[in-house]
Write a structure and sequence with these properties.
The protein has one domain. It is 73% helix and 3% strand. Strands 1-2 form a two-stranded antiparallel sheet. α1 packs antiparallel against α2, α2 runs antiparallel to α3 and α3 runs antiparallel to α4. The longest helix has 31 residues. It is elongated and about 65 Å long.
Length: 140
């Protein structure tokens, strides 16, 4: 019986920190948008803009790490590809969300709130996929 080697491309400590760090920033932006929608205090919109900018930096670097992991994966399909595509989608929607938040305070509503919810869900899905045993090369 021949055993095939298992090639694991789990995120390293820096990659995992960047990946997991984007979730609370996107979530904070969503909560700030909700607070702005209820109070109309402009500072909540400013908080959301800064949190989105920080999340884009974190997820952008995590996206670079994910691209390297994808290029190193033996078969170019499966979970490394799904992980990269989820993270790319989260980053692109986050960038669109940042542009939406750059508008005047109330002009960003309700589109900014909806985009914040979507990007938060995408970031959680990407983080879940990225931190749960990305494997390439085995049948499990």
């Amino acid at each position: 019986m021949t055993t095939l080697p298992t090639y694991r491309y789990t995120p390293g400590p820096l990659h995992a920190t960047l990946l997991a760090g984007s979730v609370p920033l996107f979530l904070g932006a969503l909560l700030s948008d909700i607070a702005y929608g209820q109070t109309y205090q402009i500072q909540w919109a400013n908080f959301a803009s800064w949190l989105i900018a920080g999340a884009l930096v974190f997820s952008g670097f995590a996206l670079l790490f994910a691209l390297v992991n994808l290029l190193r994966a033996r078969p170019k399909a499966g979970r490394p590809t799904v992980y990269f595509l989820l993270l790319l989608a989260a980053w692109v929607v986050g960038l669109v969300n940042a542009f939406q938040h750059a508008k005047d305070a109330y002009a960003m509503m309700p589109t900014g709130l909806v985009l914040s919810a979507i990007v938060t869900l995408l970031a959680v899905a990407a983080t879940w996929t990225g931190l749960t045993n990305l494997r390439s090369g085995d049948a499990q």
